[in-house]
Amino acid sequence: MIELENVAYSYGGGELLSDISLTLQAGSFHFLTGPSGAGKTTLLKLCYGALVPTAGHVTLFGADRREMDRDDIAMARRRIGVVHQDCQFLDHLSVNDNIALPLIVSGRDLLAESANLNELMTWVGLKERATAMPPELSGGERQRAALARAIIMSPDAILADEPTGNVDWEMSQRLLRLLIELNRMGKTIMVATHDLALIRAAKSHVQARVLRISNRRLQLAGADL
Amino acid sequence: MTRAPARIVEFIMGDAQADRCVPPTGFTASLTLFSAAAMAFLAVFALALSLATGRLADRWGSELARSSTIRISAPEGQLAAQTEAALRVLETTSGVASARALGHDEQRDLLEPWFGPDLPLDTLPIPQLIEVVEAEDGFDPDGLRLRLAAEVPGAVLDDHTRWRRPLVEAATRLRTLGLFSILIIGGATAAMITLAANAALAANAQVISVLRLVGARDRYIAQAFVRRFTLRALIGAGVGVVIAAVAILLLPAAQDAGGFLTGLGFQGLQWLWLFVIPPLAAAVAFAATQAAAVKTLKDMP
What we know:
The complex is a heterodimer.
Chain A: E1 2-11, E2 14-24, E3 29-33, H1 40-47, E4 55-60, E5 63-64, H2 70-77, E6 80-83, H3 95-105, H4 110-123, H5 139-151, E7 157-161, H6 169-184, E8 188-192, H7 196-203, E9 209-214, E10 217-220
Parallel strand pairs in A: 3-8, 3-9, 6-7, 7-8
Antiparallel strand pairs in A: 1-2, 1-4, 4-5, 9-10
Helix pairs in contact in A: 3-4, 3-5
Chain B: H1 3-13, H2 16-21, H3 26-62, E1 67-72, H4 79-91, E2 96-101, H5 104-115, E3 128-134, H6 141-151, E4 155-158, H7 161-203, H8 205-213, H9 218-249, H10 277-299
Antiparallel strand pairs in B: 1-3, 1-4, 2-3
Helix pairs in contact in B: 3-7, 3-9, 4-6, 7-9, 7-10, 9-10
């Protein structure tokens, strides 16, 4: 599905990631951990095609990232739901419209999708906040809205960058449960986080592979996790 | 080709959902509307100038080219005889449709603007004027001059070439200048709309980033901006054309005494040109915004 082979990424003369090889298979659950600035976000961006590796190969759904044009990347993004730590909403649209944004840009009929949209809003607990504007949402609500937007197109993979970074423990557990539920539906999940407690909590519910970025390289995390 | 109108209608109708993705931008919206209105206003006047000078050039070029004057200066006793002789020469000259000696009153009318109504014409040695109207194929002025020199020594042929040519040239150049002005106005409109589109795209970098994140193609993002700017240019130019049309209608009507200045405007079917300007402005805006959007989106990471 998503494959990185001996990938390196440099920026501003310095190498941020080196010799990274990783395969995200369908239905797998990965945690990506490491200290701040280790390159977790960069690795996620390589995984969803926002960055082009300076060495090695990134393959998205069978296509080499270097061979993909803007349209190809856009099509790949429809199969990969992305949740950013800062969420990134369009502040002039309601929560409901923001969540429906992937449907809008892909030309889907919103009327036909309204039942799915309502169901999703209920699932993430935002049905009552559908008409609110993004700046009115709390941190947890923003994260759940971002997750809902990421999965509205029923993507094959969901990549989340510090999804629990701005929420309390209870909310982070709630988000984790949503991600585990999605994984049980067959979705590939990759969560970048430095919250080891979250990883430990997840491992009792899901078969997750924990990866750590250390010294620009990717390692399988030790038994301490 | 048959699909083109359908695509234009589809473009104008747009996609209401897609339009909402890009937030309305007050500053660039006002700038585009005002620029398009101002440029359309100027374009209407440039077009009016061009058409008016075109009419003048045609009139001077055709009507005056077909008329000539023979001036006979002779001692008082010989004036009538030389006039008769000149008319006889003209009757037998190939290419002359008609010729007639101007009457006493007509000559006084011609001189009145310069000497006033009380001119004692009878007491002055005024030359006799003969108006000559050429046939379609025209006459040979050099040949006629030679015959007049031989048979009517006091006659001088003036075929108006000397003063008509610079007038026609001036009118033709003014017409070219008017058309060139329209091109300049089109270029300035494109430049201003490009600047406004670039400003809008830069101001919406975050929006573009989000749209890309959720799988929007660049073509989709570009179209949201292009459609918005094209419609603004169309509306702005429409307003500018209406204001300019009213202003032209308020200009004094064409009069002989006013000459060129009172002839500025449109006549008959020429008014239809006004309907061309808003779509043309929209086409310029479409091309300018499309180019700006494609370049900006390409340069964005």
